[in-house]
Structure prediction request, 392 residues.
Amino acid sequence: MPLVQVRLPQRQRSYEIVIGPDLLSKLGRLSRTVLGSQSRRVALISNTAVFERYGRRTLQSLRAANFKTSPWLMPDGEQHKSLRSLGYALEFLAESGLERGDAVIALGGGVVGDLAGFAAATYLRGIAFVQVPTTLLAQIDAAIGGKTGVNLPAGKNLVGAFHQPHLVVIDTATLQTLPQRELTSGWSEAVKQGAVGSRKLFEQTCRFLQSGGGTDLSLRTIKKRPRTDVRATDLDEVIAAHCRFKASIVTRDEREDIDRTDHKSRRILNFGHTTAHALERLTRYRRFRHGEAVGLGMLVAGEISKNLGMLAPGELESLREAVRLCGPLPRASDLAIETIIRAMRLDKKSVGGVTRWILLERIGRACIVDGKEIDKPTLRSSLRTGLQPLYW
Ligand code: NAD
Ligand code: GLY
Prediction:
């Protein structure tokens, strides 16, 4: 059972990520170990879709470890990662009588994890929380590193706090019920992590995707096999490798220091996000899953990197092949280039009004570039080429 340590400068805030199939049944015992014997009550925050599938097992496991527990379910969907839902969640924590030594447990994807984490960060000025991510994207990224928060009508993730979990429990068997598009979205973020930080991780991810059946990188082939199949353990290993990578970034730059511009800044995880956020905003968050938009955004950033003479054409081809392996992406070539550029200006990651682009020097090495260094014709032609449909 792979175990990944997230080491933070303040040692008491360091934590472990436990990875393996069927860990929901061990959640109670694992949580008891980190929360200690004084913790009496845990509030389980989930959504209706996830709780239906995994709620009973989770509650049983927590109760067997002597936690008093009751669930609070939010409706499914990004639009519910809101201040309104947060208010309901906090009232639930108060009504349940949670005390300082108690904890919140988040069971679900990134939406549930971000909201539950923020509730834990703010209730009684901060109580413990445990992440139990059930989407691929949350297992390799969102559940690790302590970013929590909710959206405002003005934009995504505009309110939040850094609040590290006490423990992350990744039950990889939960991915068996994840819809194909959510897998594509998660794999796209996985390709991103390899592309910006580690050629080895990039190649390991691509090999795994290819072994899933040529251009079909989905887990469909795995699902039909018993969990003893070698590919099931490969999946756990790939996820563990991504967790190790994310942990290493968080260890070096826990709070995404705004002054850091080196290739080890946490900000390199925003590779592909300048275009992705513009595409999502323009299509009112209805056309793309976040990771799908990131897939397209990486191709645009890759084109810019090549056009500026930073990235070799062969490296860009490897990136394109990796994105192709993640599965089909929604169309973006119908969106007007000038409208996309206008939407990019609203990027909240800009500094002093200037977008900071994450570009690639090679697979495994990113750099941060001031948007002023990218001339308009380069940006336009990179968008045009990068957003052309890939062929599957
Ligand atoms: P999500 O939480 O909306 O989950 C996607 C869908 O899958 C939902 O419909 C959900 O109900 C369903 N689902 C979840 N687990 C399932 C399972 N095992 N089987 C079947 N269905 C399942 O989306 P996501 O991609 O997990 O997360 C996106 C969110 O994460 C965004 O709000 C984003 O801002 C946030 N995020 C946060 C961080 C961070 O560092 N905190 C990083 C990346 C993304
Ligand atoms: N997913 C971006 C971060 O954790 O920093």
Residues 19 and 170 are 5 Å apart (CA to CA). The chain has 14 helices and eleven strands.
